[in-house]
Write a structure and sequence with these properties.
By secondary structure, this protein is an alpha+beta fold. Helix content is about 35%, strand content about 30%.
Amino acid sequence: MNYQPLVIRQAEQQDEQRWDAYVLNHPDASPYHLFAWKFAVEGSYGHHCYYLYAEKDGQLLGVLPLVHLYFPGLVNELTALPYCDVGNCLSDDEATQDALLDKALGLQQKLNSKKLNLRGTLRETELKNTVFQAEKTGKVRMLLKLSPSADELFSSFKSKLRSQVRKAEKNGVAFRWGGLENLEAVYAVFSRNMHELGSPVHAKNWLQSVLEHYRKKVKVGLAEFEGKTIGMGIILLAGRSVSIPWASTLR
């Protein structure tokens, strides 16, 4: 049998199913690694994406999603991934990771990009330790191991938090699932909250693009009071991993 060498390719639209199958079976994957993030970024903000994958003997052994953030005279960076807190290289082993990183470094040089940002952890290799350095940003990821049921999860909360939830319910705040049809209400809460925090606000078509492309892998949670939406949360799904990139409430 003739074994083929490891090759690095750039994913095209027809590779979505293979890419997502690999991501959904990788223990370190997040919903942001799915191909839907690529479609959302390209469709709303127009940034060019370079989604690299490693293949050997017809099998995917690793993926590295990269987005080229380019604003002439201002920004020229490759990032994995923007607009979220993680999105790093996923691989089966160190050699595959290094091959993907080496390809990314070549792409950085070709694009004359000033930085290559990888958000997440890497396997410890000579290439990683020589070329890449961790930056202290002061930001953290908050992770929670989910219980098998909602009742068990609620019981695991501290009594003060359980009381706050019950008080909201007692005062008439209700939860329900929404969707793309609730975009206007969702964005009204989200944008107002971001303005109050003094943070830049995503364009509405960005949230719309995420909801459209994630399809069955996205849920919208709504908190309502007297018929008005006062809270929202966008929830992304990937196998056994769940992420909430945006959640806001009105004060």
